[in-house]
Design a protein that fits this description.
alpha/beta; DNA methylase adenine-specific domain-containing protein; 11 helices; 2 domains; 7-stranded mixed sheet; DNA binding; Adenine-n6-DNA-methyltransferase TaqI, Chain A, domain 2; elongated; binds S-adenosylmethionine; N-methyltransferase activity; SAM-dependent_MTases_sf; 26% strand; DNA_methylase_A-5; single chain
């Protein structure tokens, strides 16, 4: 929108969201709805209420709004992330469903800032377009929703030269109808000519080609621990605690904790004991080196290892099974221009999506809403 220096936090008023969705023409009730710039969640809430969607999935680049929303909507799948940087959708394996997202509902960011256009990939093409269009194209490409999308778009997206190429590409897959013209006063703090439009798929389009993930069982609590010992700088001490580095993970999986022979008295972040699973932070994790194990004594994780601590053996082995069932999507979390690595935030979000809940993240959420 015009005043977009703040990531376009111009949330859709709930009454407007409902009014627009009431006008949608859908082939059937959408089971799963997703919003890739979900903000305060008003479009997903309207999808639940008006369209009777059973499951909601939201992404937003702002961790604070996602934390708040997770607290308000514990049944929704919510992820922090920059949609334009995602290469894969998050898991859409909701209980009782067997395919991907049915409908996207979104009010994307509009502001280009100082840029004239952005470039995104859609359907094998590299397209120059506005930010709003880029967000729509990437969302359609990532989720391949069976029934297309309903989106708030600026008037310019429908007519400008900037979005001409993108419109032509979208024309090949969708028909576009305007559902509701919005007043320039609809969004508090922004003045923009915009409307709700629907991108409809032709009837008979095959279901989404998104990889189907197994259904998660019950939620598993964990505590994610980032290792902090720098391997090149620590002092070895025979009477100290065992040190775990990423190169030790395979032998520990085969022979248990006794395979870690190096010890230190150095105190660093990342001490852990009890039932646990370990992943390398850098490189690429190996499925055969990923096995739950127990250590009565605290062990020290190097800064190249991330630990997940579990309250029981059952929880640790259930998490092992569940993570292994989603191994391919775990591998996609390891990214980087040089060496591939995973961040704690990325891992915690992903674990949340498969029903493994980090206690610290959950605590942070409740503290946040108490303020
Ligand atoms: C106009 S608001 C819409 C929020 C919500 N869908 C609604 O209609 O109320 C745009 C949202 O997009 C988020 N956002 C901006 N850039 C993003 C990006 N690259 N990836 C994901 N979310 C983004 C902002 O944090 C903001 O919450």
């Amino acid at each position: 929108m015009t005043a977009g220096i703040d990531s376009d936090k111009y949330y859709t008023p709930p009454a407007i969201a409902s009014r627009a969705l009431e006008r949608a023409q859908l082939a059937s009730t959408p089971t799963i709805c997703a919003d890739t710039a979900c903000g305060s969640g008003s479009l997903l809430a309207a999808a639940e209420e008006v369209l009777e969607a059973r499951h909601c999935l939201g992404i937003d680049s702002d961790p604070l709004v996602i934390r708040q929303l997770r607290r308000e909507k514990p049944d929704w799948r919510l992820y922090v992330g920059d949609l334009l940087k995602r290469h894969r959708p998050p898991p859409t394996d909701f209980p009782g469903t067997c395919y991907g997202v049915d409908l996207l509902v979104l009010n994307p960011p509009f502001s280009l800032g100082s840029r004239k256009y952005v470039t995104v990939k859609y359907s094998g093409h590299s397209v120059k377009c506005s930010v709003a269009m880029a967000h729509i194209l990437r969302s359609l490409e990532l989720f391949r929703p069976n029934q297309g999308a309903i989106a708030v778009v600026p008037e310019s997206l429908l007519y400008s030269n900037t979005d001409q190429d993108a419109r032509e590409l979208l024309d090949q897959d969708f028909s576009l109808t305007e559902l509701l013209q919005l007043s320039i006063y609809t969004f508090k703090g922004a003045r923009v000519n915009s409307s709700f439009v629907q991108f409809r798929t032709p009837s008979g389009r095959p279901l989404s080609s998104i990889e189907v993930m197994p259904q998660p069982e019950d939620s598993i609590p964990t505590t994610v621990v980032r290792g902090g010992l720098q391997m090149h700088a620590f002092e070895r001490a025979p009477s100290g605690v065992r040190v775990i580095h990423s190169t030790t993970l395979r032998s520990i999986a085969d022979a248990g904790i006794t395979a870690a022979t190096e010890r230190t008295c150095a105190v660093a972040k990342g001490r852990i004991s009890g039932w646990m699973l370990l992943l390398p932070r850098v490189g690429s994790p190996k499925e055969e080196a990923f096995r739950a194990f127990y250590s009565k004594d605290a062990i020290q994780l190097s800064d190249c290892v991330i630990g997940m601590k579990f309250p029981s053996k059952v929880a640790a082995f259930s998490a092992q099974r569940r993570i292994r069932a989603h191994w391919k999507s775990l591998l996609c979390l390891y990214r980087g221009t040089g060496a591939r690595y995973i961040t704690i935030d990325r891992l915690v979000d992903w674990l949340y999506g498969i029903g493994i809940h980090d206690r610290n993240a959950m605590k942070e959420m409740s503290e946040l809403t108490l303020i």
